[in-house]
Design goal:
single chain, 240 residues, 7-stranded mixed β-sheet
């Protein structure tokens, strides 16, 4: 496990506290629509932190080519139809350029500044000069509007897991406790009719100015904010 990260519940747990079986159940939300509207049709996407392919698979169905990267071999075993690479994001070194590089799941908010810089450097070094980087960042009240919860419909459970209960599940963001240097320890809980998973992880809140400054350090700049809440961002190489 990475220091400061923890996960509980059935099945394999990745180094950052994510439960593979949980992520196999989570539904696809509006991510494919946002991505499709921001990039050229048929683009080759480098997806950093793909997990079980929750977003990968809808992108493949829409005609995109995807190279999917994750540090968890257990996660990558669930990905179908994409080229997969098992590697930490911050040390990835492919001798390739991509039309689109995607860093979703709020990974830009990692508590370790060195890891964040590594991730953004990887985004810059792997995107074509005329390409773009899509980044998902936290909402403004992510660390302050707590506790909060939302209920969602569930997807069919992975083979061998769960029941056929058609009811939904609940996501609870329970707390964000300061641990120093501007970093919070965030605790989340996912409650299904047949199982409960928890995840504890480190996250660094970033103002819009801090976020754009981190991009600039990596040679990237905001092209436009893709959603009204500023959560999804399209960035391009400086000078493009």
């Amino acid at each position: 496990m990475r220091a400061g990260y923890e996960g509980t519940g059935p099945g394999a747990i990745t180094p950052d506290g994510c439960a593979v079986e949980l992520y196999a159940r989570l539904p696809v939300r509006d991510e494919p629509d946002i991505i499709s509207a921001a990039v050229p049709a048929g683009a080759h996407i480098l997806e950093l932190g793909c997990g079980v392919g929750r977003v990968t698979h809808p992108l493949l169905e829409r005609g995109f080519m995807v190279t999917a990267v994750d540090e968890s071999a257990e996660m990558l075993e669930r990905v179908r139809g994409a080229r997969t690479i098992c590697s930490p994001i911050e040390t990835l070194a492919l001798r390739e350029k991509f039309d689109v590089v995607m860093l979703a799941s709020f990974l830009v908010h990692t508590g370790d500044v060195g890891v964040r810089r590594g991730m953004l450097d990887v985004c810059r070094s792997h995107v074509a000069d005329d390409g773009c980087v899509l980044i998902q960042r936290e909402g403004e009240d992510y660390h302050t509007n707590l506790p909060r919860e939302r209920s969602e419909m569930r997807v069919p459970p992975a083979e061998g897991w769960g029941s056929e209960d058609p009811s939904g599940f609940t996501v609870r963001m329970l707390s964000a406790e300061p641990v120093g240097d501007g970093v919070n320890s965030v605790h989340a809980e996912y409650v299904f009719p047949d199982a409960i998973w928890t995840q504890t992880f480190l996250a660094r809140p970033l103002t819009k100015e801090e976020f754009e400054g981190a991009l600039a350090e990596a040679g990237l700049k905001v092209d436009r904010y893709l959603t009204g809440d500023g959560v999804w961002v399209r960035a391009v190489p400086v000078g493009a």
